[in-house]
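hiii so my PI (J.) wants the whole complex modelled not just the main chain, which honestly fair. so below is everything: two entries, each one labled with what it is. i double checked the lines twice but i was tired so who knows lol
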Amino acid sequence: MTADYAGLFHALRPESHLVIGALLVLFFDVLWARHRPANRHHVALALGLISLLMAATAAVTQGTIGPVFQKMLVIDQLAVATRVGVFALAAFALALLPESSRQRHPAEFTAILLFATTGFTLMAAANHLLIIFLALELASLSLYVLAGFDKKSAASAEAGLKYFLFGGMSAAFLLFGFSLIYGLTGSLHLGNIATQLAIQGQPPLLIVALVMVLVAFGFKAAAAPFHLWAPDVYQGAPAPAAALIASASKLAGLVLFTRLLWPGLGTAVGTIAHTPITVGWAPVVALLSAASLLLGNIGALAQTNVRRLLAYSAIAHAGALLLGVIAAGRIGLGPLYFYAATYGLATVGAFGVVAALETAGPVQNLTDLAGLYRRSPLLAGCLAVFILSLAGIPPLAGFFGKFAVFSSVLRLGGLAGPAGWLVILAIALSAVALYYYLLILKQALVAAPVKNAPRVTTPWPARIALLVAAGLLVLLGVMPSLLLQLF
Amino acid sequence: MNALPCTIYVSFAGALLALAAGSRSAQAARVVALLTALASWGIVLAAATGFVPAAGLQDLVNVAWIPEMGIRYHLAVDGISLTLLVLTGLAATAGVLFSWNITERTGEFFALYLALIGGVYGVFLSADAFVLFVFYEIAIVPKYFLIANWGSTNREYGAMKLVLYSFAGSALVLAGLLWAYAAGHGTGFSLPELVAATGSLSLAQQIGVFGLVFTGFATLAGMFPLHTWAPTGHVAAPTAASMLLAGVVMKLGAYGCLRVALPLSPAAFALLQPYIAWLAIIGILYAGFVALVQDDFKFVIGYSSVSHMGFVLLGLAAANVTAVSGAVFQMFSHGVIAGLLFAVVGRMVYERTHTRQLADLRAMSLHRLIPFAAVVFVLAGIASMGLPGFSGFPAELTILIGTWQRQPLWALAAAFGVLIAAAFTLRAIQVSFFGRTGTDRCDTPIEPLPAITWPEKTGALLLLGATIYLGLSPDTLFDWIRPALQSPYFHAILTGGLS
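here's the output for the full assembly
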C-alpha cells in the first residue's frame, strides 16, 4: 500500500493556502510593513483575509472527496461545511482585530490565527486518532498563544496560562483514552475501531476510555464541570481571540467529537431516549449537558461582567449542543451543525461589538455598555441582533438552531427517556436565559449613557464584519433551509 | 382576500421605514407609522368586505418553507381570525394616534410598535403551528423595549416581568408542540397533523401536551393565577403599548388557546374543562374585587382587563358554539373597550395631570377640565359594564347563555362578576372624574389643563364608533364567527366535553 501524496496535497489545498498565507503575513511584516507602522495592521489584515477567502474557495470548489490518504482524513459533506464555517468565523474574528496601539503585533496575531484555523479544518476532516490529536493540538497551542496575546495585560496572561493548563490536562486525558482504545482495538483508524468494537461488544475498559475522551470533549466544548477555564479566558483574552475560542474552535471541536463518537464509537452509544437507559457514552454526554444547562444559565444570572456573562451563556449553549450530539447520529447532522454555526456567528458578533467598543475605553462591566444606542446606533443594533439570536428569538437563526436541535432530540423517543426530559429542561431554562440577555440589551438600548461618554467610531473592516454577521443571522433565521439542505 | 398576508409585510416594512424616518424627524416617523397602520387596516377591511364566511380556513399562502422538517409557510383566514385582524388594525391605528406626543426616540418607538403589530397580524393569519409560534415570539421582545424605554411607574420591573411571563408561556407552548411533533414522527406542524399526532399518544401524555400548550397560551391571556404580569405590565407601559397589550396581545393568548390548544386533544380538554372554567371564574371575580380597591387609576383598568379576559376563557371552556362565538366577540369587544379606557387614563388624564392616584384625581374635578375625556370614559365604562347598546353586552350575554347551557352554576358565578365589574367601573368613574362635591364646585379657581388634541379625539371616536356599532349590530361579527366554528376542526371540542 503506497501513500498517495498527490491526493493528500489535493485534499489539503485549503490548509496549504492558510499556511502559506500565514508565512506570507510574517514575511511581509518583517521585510516591509514593520517599517511602515501606519500600514502594518492593514497589510496583515488584508493578507489574512485573502488567504481565508482563498482557502474557503478551494474548499468549496473541490467539494466532497471522500476518504483521503489511507482514510486518515475524510472530506465529506460535514467536513466541507465545517471548513467553510470555520473560515467564515475566523475571518469575522480577524476583521475585529482592533487597530489600536494595544495591539502591537498584528502580523503575529494574524499568522497564529491562521495556524489555529488550519488546526480547526484538520479537526473537521480527521478520521484517525493520531490526526485528531495532532489537529487538536495545533489548534489548541495556537489558541493558548492568542489568549495570552495582550502582553501588557495581567488578565490576558492569566487567561493564556489558565487555558494552557486546563487544555494540557485535557489533552493528557484524551491521549490516555486514545491509548486505551488502541489497546482494545489495535487500530487508530475510526472505521477499524468501529468494526472491532462491533465484534467485541462493550469491554469494561472501553467505558474508562470513553470517560477519558469525554473529559477532553467537555473541556473543548466548555461543558460543565470542565468549564472552569471559560469565564476567565473570555474575560482576559483579547476580544478577537475570545471570539475565535468561542466560535470557530467550538464548531470544529463539536464536529471532531461527533465524528469520533458516532462513526468511531457509535456501537458504545448506549440509549437515553427510553427508560431504562443502557450504558454508553450518551448517558455521560447527557449528564454533561444537564450540568452545563443548569450551571451556565444559573451562573449567568449572577454575572455583572459582559464577557463572563457571555462565557456562562457559552456554557449553557454547550449544554444544548451536547444534546444535539446525542441526536446527530440518528436524526442527522443538520440541526447540530446549524446550531453550532449560528451560535458561533452570534458569539463572534457579540465579542465583535465588545472589541469595537474597546477602542473607546475598557469594556468589562455591563454598565460599560450603557447608552450604546446613543454612542453608536450601529453597534447597538448589531448587538441586539446577536444577543437576541443567542436568546433564541425568531426570526433570528439562533431560534431555529434551538428548535431544530430540540425537535431532533425529541424525535429519538419523545418524552419516554432522559433525552426528552433534558429538552424540557433546556426549553424551560431558555426563559431564564432571556432574563440575562435582556440585562445586556437593557444597558445597551435602554439605559442612558454616562456623562461625557465618547461616541464610538467603528473601523470599517469591523463594521462590515458585524453587519454581514447580523445579516447572515437574519437570513439563516428566515431561510434555515440554506444550511439544512446541505446535510 | 389574497392581499391579507401583506398586512404582515407592510407592518414590518413600515417598522424599518419608521426607524429610518425617525433619524430625520419625529413627525416623519409618526406619519410613516400612521400610514402603515392605516394601510394594513385598509387591507384587512377591504378583505372583510369581500369575505364569504365558510366553515374552515381559507388558504392565502401555502408554500414549503423548511422542507427538511416538514414546515410550511401556511397562512389562512376564517371568520375568527378575520374578526381579530380587524381588531388589530383598529387598535394599531388608534394606538398610533394616542402616541402622537412621543418625542423621545420617536422613530425607534414606532419601529418597535409596528414590529409588534406585524407579529400580531402574523399570529392571526397562521395556519401552521410553527409559523404561528414564530410570529408569537416576534411579538414578545418589542414589548420589553416599548415598556422599559417609554413607560412610567416601575417600568423596568414591569417590562421584565411581562416579557419573562410571555416568554415562559411560549416556552411551554414550544415544549408541547415539539412533543406533539415528535409523536407524529416529525412529519409537519400543520394543525390537523398535530391533532392527529397528539391523538396517537396515551391519555396521560395527551394531558401533558394539552396542559403545556394551554397553560402557555393562557398565561398570555391572563388566566388566574398566571395573570400577575398583566396589571404591572399594563401600568408600566406607555399608553399605546397598554392599549395594544390589553387590546390585542392578550387576545393572542386566547386565540392560541382556541386555535391550537383546545383542538389538540379533545379527550384531555374534556377532562380538564371544569378546572379551566373554575380558574376563569376565579379570575373574573378575584380581579374584579382587586380592581375595586386600587388606588392607582391604571391598576383599576389593568385588573378589569384580567377580569374581562376571564369571560373569554370561560367562553372557551364552556365549549359550545354559543359560548365560543361569544368569547371571540368578547375578544374584539374587550380589545376596543380596554383600548379606550387605557387611552383615557394613560394619555388624556395622566399626561396632563401627571398623577394616576385616584385620591389626587378626586380633588381635580376633571369633568370640567377635560370634559371630552370624561364623556369618553363614561361611555367606555358603560360599554365595559356590559350595558345594552355597546359591544360588551352581546359579548358577555352570549358567553353567559352558552355557559348556562353547559353548566348553570358557572354562569351564575360569572354573572356575579358582571356586578363587580359594574361596581369597580362606577367607582372609577365617580372618583376620577366627578370627585368634587357640589358645594365647592364653582368657588375654587381651576388651573386649566392642555386641551385634548385632534389625534386623541380621532382615536377615541374610532374606538367608540366600533363599540357602539357592534353593540347595535352584533351580527356583523357573529355572521363571520359562527360559520367558522362549524369547521370539522372544531367539531370534536364543541360537541365533546361535559354533556
